Amino acid sequence: MKCKVCRAHAVVDIRRHNAAFCQDHFVDHVNSQVAKAIKEFKMVTAEDRLLVAVSGGKDSLAVWDILMNLGYDTTGFYLDLGIGGYSGRSKEAAVAFADSRGVKLIVRSLREEHGFSVPELSTLTGRVPCSGCGLNKRYEFNRAALEEGFDVLVTGHNLDDEVATLFGNVLGWNTQMLGRQRPVLEERVVSAGAARAFVRKIKPLIRIAERETAAYALIRGIDYIVEECPMVEGNTQHRYKEALTLLEEASPGTKHRMYFGFLKNVSDRFAEDRGATELIPCAGCGAPTVASGAHATGELMCSFCKTKALAQARRAEREDATGRGVKRR
Amino acid sequence: MKVKLRNPDRVVEVDGPRTVSALLNRLEVVSEAVLVIRDATLLTRDEPLGPDDELEVRPVLSGGSLPPGDGR
Ligand code: SF4
Ligand SMILES: [Zn+2]
Ligand SMILES: [Zn+2]
Q1: Which residue of A has its CA nearest to B64?
Q2: Each residue of A194-224: pLDDT tens digit?
Q3: Considering only the top CATH level, what class is A38-227+234-275?
Q4: The domain that contains B27 carries what CATH number?
Q5: Fewest beta carbons within 10 Å, which of A249, B34, B57, B72?
């Protein structure tokens, strides 16, 4: 195959675009697709300070690289989840990338901040690792962005991620999540003039398939972590991705049609289902939280603090049971 | 040809496929779910292969996700 732009030998073919590219023109193509998404959904302005959540994987490092290419002011944020050797190696990948580009990376550790890792949280609460993990990331990414004064939080969600989430929301007819699934989540404050409760969040890679972010990272010499998180086993999102990829293989463009058709024709029909979003301060951490959820359970705590409190209570029970709690006193 | 597979890392010997697509068919791998790499260079699906090639078939679909909802 030949490059669509210069007719040189192609290295990547993109079947849904009916196109192939040489290395340089593939990089141009990806950068311009991201610029297009940013413009189309008015994701950021040139003055914004961006915090990029990086995991050491291909998507988040690729989006950081692309945003630098496009001239944005970016800083990386890595959250150490404490998942054994995997977290150590993914942190190395994130640090090595930041060093190679001479850019700043903020590193925080879940265990240092809150006293537990993702596997420990899962054992203590009896919930699957990915659910606690997602909650931790959401909470810590937002907190870091607000504390460090960033205008926008960037995540590396790609087309495959978004279409798999959409597929899951449709399978379960989760109308509230369907109402909320957008490439930009606007900044929110508790009341007019108050400090920000939630930072603006954007997903610049929505036009890029996962196969393309991997190709991009490889071509750009980004040494990302290929190894999978050991907790991923049985992750439903992964199953949806595989199913959708089979459909894509048979009919290129399926994923793009489903996701962008949703944004264009369907998303707003679920606007009412986005739900009541009156915000109140969490009794645990003081961060603003959604009042409706708190009232429903009778506790005015955010879901992160509720989970953390549960984990701490279970840990205390265990320590009492083994006698360690007594010895310490 | 020698083909490196991932998760877990292993190398298998495959004889016969003349193109990337044929190799992926033989391995029963969905082409949209992988990249094929030779000498640190990516290969398109129609790229010809030789019997002495050393290749890597790298999966691209990762499982981790960030649930999107946080009350907005
Ligand atoms: S696979 Fe699950 S536990 Fe592992 S990093 Fe992703 S969300 Fe977290
Ligand atoms: Zn070219
Ligand atoms: Zn809280």
Answers
A1: A232
A2: 788 899 999 999 999 999 999 999 999 999 9
A3: alpha beta
A4: 3.10.20.30
A5: A249
